[in-house]
Amino acid sequence: MGLISEFKTFINRGNVMDLAVGVIIGGAFATITKSLTDDLIMPVVGYIFGGADFSRYFIRLGDLPAGFKGNPESYADLKAAGVAMFGWGEFLTVFVNFLILAFVIFLLVKAVNRLMSKPEDAPAGPSEEVLLLREIRDSLKK
Predict the structure, then answer these.
(1) Which helix (H) or strand (E) holds 73?
(2) Which residue ranges run through the membrane (predicted)?
(3) What angle do CA 66, 67, 70 make, to 5 degrees?
(4) Reduced to 3 states, what is the DSSP secondary structure of residue 37?
(5) In angstroms, what is the C-alpha Rg of the chain?
(6) Measured between alpha carbons, how far is 73 from 92 in angstroms, rounded to an integer?
(7) CA geometry: angle at 117 spanning 112 and 121, to 5°?
(8) How many whole angstroms separate alpha carbon 78 and alpha carbon 61?
(9) pTM for the complete prediction?
(10) Which residue did the predictor score with more confidence, 44 or 137?
(11) Can you tell me the distance from the alpha carbon of 104 to that of 33, in angstroms, rounded to the nearest whole number?
(12) What tens digit of pLDDT does each residue of 48-59 get?
């Protein structure tokens, strides 16, 4: 029964529930960020650099398998067929997605740190009360 009660105590802590909420919100936020990257930012970047989809930029390293029926210029078709590729365009998309997510999290943490109250600095020396109590103590010793 000790293990079950310890587990129950662990689950009832506020930190576990906060973590669970954070993971769920983080997953939803990652979906929004992925859509921002895939649907808004990368098409503009792709348009500037001559293509609407960065995933089409890759270097095929392996041969096409026998009986390959997909498009040999499609990253998704080649990946599904198990062809070895250097998919730098897809990596670039994921990397931009990461940078956006990291920057937004940085801004959120910065905002939360501003909102949280800062602990007061401890006085450099002993307080007046401590000094007075020391004087009384020393007087009583005499």
Answers:
(1) none
(2) 16-33, 91-109
(3) 115
(4) helix
(5) 30
(6) 18
(7) 135
(8) 11
(9) 0.54
(10) 137
(11) 9
(12) 766 656 777 888
